[in-house]
Amino acid sequence: MGELLRRMLEECEGRFVSGQEIGRRLGTSRAAVWKQVQALRRRGFGIEGARGAGYRLLGLPDLIEEKELFSRLSRPDFWKALVFFPVTDSTNSRAAELAGKGAAHATVVCADAQTSGRGRLGRKWESPPGVNLYLSLLLRPPLDPVKAPQLTLVAAIALAAAIEDVSGLRASLKWPNDLFLSGRKAAGILAEMAADPDCLRHVVIGVGLNVNAESSGFPAELREKATSLKISAGRPFRRVDVLARFLDSFAECYGAFMSGGFKALLPEWNRRDALLGKRVLLRHGLEEDRGRALGVDDSGQLLFRREGAHRTVKVASGEILEFER
Ligand code: BTN
Question: Global pTM?
Answer without folding.
Answer: 0.87
